[in-house]
Amino acid sequence: MEKAISFRVADAMPEDVGQGYIRIDNADMEKMEVIIGDILEIQGRKTTVAKVVPCFSQYKNQNIAQMESIIRENAGVGIDERVTVRKIARQPAQTLVLSPLDVTIDFSDAQDSKHLERVLNGLPMIIGDRLKVNLAGARSQYFTVIGTAPQGAVIVNAATEIKVTKTDASEDRSFRASYEDVGGLDKELQRIREMVELPLKYPEIFRQLGVEAPKGVLLYGPPGTGKTLMARAVSSETNAAFLHVNGPEIINKFYGESEARIREIFETAQRRAPAIIFIDEIDAIAPKRTEVIGDVEKRVVAQLLALMDGLKNRGQVVVIGATNVPDMVDPALRRPGRFDRELSINPPDRFGRLKILKIHTRLMTIDSSVNIEKLAQMTHGFVGADIAILCKEAGMNAVRRLLPEIDFSEELREEDLAKLTINMNDFFAAFRE
Ligand code: ADP
């Protein structure tokens, strides 16, 4: 029997995303008699596999295993939980059968299959694993590994035959975010995790101690700073349902039906608990009642207050409200038992911008001319959403620059495609726009 070691789970560095790594201490690697690239079986509530690499110096001697969110999901663990890890044999995959989660995607495209082969090459996997792949033009797509030959843990290589088949297990999972997708808000993320993740995950502990978990958290800060993103990340990482409510829309679109709609959302949340109800621009629903406001708003505030007071759970449904004008929110909403926790989300400093830039460029093919530090300096005053747009624009600039150079009379070859990269000038041009 191979030596097994238990580790505390930490999240991965942005640059590790998509690599299939588990990072642990060198000393532990020696104890387990493994070398870089060996395959480890990771056991949490579920079992998965990853390639072992040494940890960064700041994690030395701390008994920590760094794993990105998809690997944590596959191991059925969250951050700070424990996994047991042991070495297992590496075997090349002859065949890999995948089922897409999103039934609407079409895999007849040869380009997509090629891409899939390229990004999966070298990754270890085992039946039941989820894979996250970014396909051209689309957002992340999720696949489940439903078959491998041989059985057990396998490593995909260039010769592996990859089959994609749709099954009933496919479901529509529109948008997942993970903690690694959020940059420059480490402290804020830590706080929101304490307030929301702990009670969602361990309701029995709160019940046992008789401690009330927060029902409502108010996030305030300028638009585009990552409030929605954080709420989504918490819901994805805790496998909680995410119900998005847009404040102005509730008030305007469903004229006369606003209260019924809010009631419905709370009912759905309780049915699908654990759940997070995210109310964007909550100031539109619940403006200060001293201001002159319409009947609809008055009734909706009353309804919202009644629903929140009626939430008898201990943390199984959490309401997160977001606003950029906290002073405009009805004080009645901020009393104990309602939105009694607040968190301010500020625009990123240079260090935060650097992290956000790394996140938004990690899936882009950038060349060595791209100086991220310099971009972080130049983007003073940008919020996360601005940085996301800057990176997208830089990508589009590269496409425009490179398109004329491509000979479309011939079929595009992989090696020619590999030469296409985004450079610093593409970012400069995006910056000037
Ligand atoms: P808010 O809810 O505060 O208005 P969002 O969370 O909707 O902002 O941000 C919009 C988009 O901008 C996000 O989907 C993400 O792509 C990007 N973004 C914003 N803040 C961050 C951040 N802190 N880290 C990484 N990306 C961010």
Automatic annotation (TrEMBL):
EC assignment: 3.4.24.-
UniProt enzyme class: hydrolase
Name of protein: ATP-dependent zinc metalloprotease FtsH
Residue ranges occupied by any AAA+ ATPase domain in the UniProt entry: 213-349
Organism ancestry: Bacteria, Bacillati, Bacillota, Negativicutes, Selenomonadales
Residue intervals of the CDC48 N-terminal subdomain domain: 6-91
Family as reported in the entry's similarity comment: Belongs to the AAA ATPase family.
Domain CDC48: 106-171
Keyword terms, alphabetized: ATP-binding, Hydrolase, Metalloprotease, Nucleotide-binding, Protease
GO MF annotations, alphabetized: metallopeptidase activity
Domain of life, per lineage: Bacteria
Parent-record interval covered: 1 to 433 of 704
UniProt source species: Sporomusa silvacetica DSM 10669
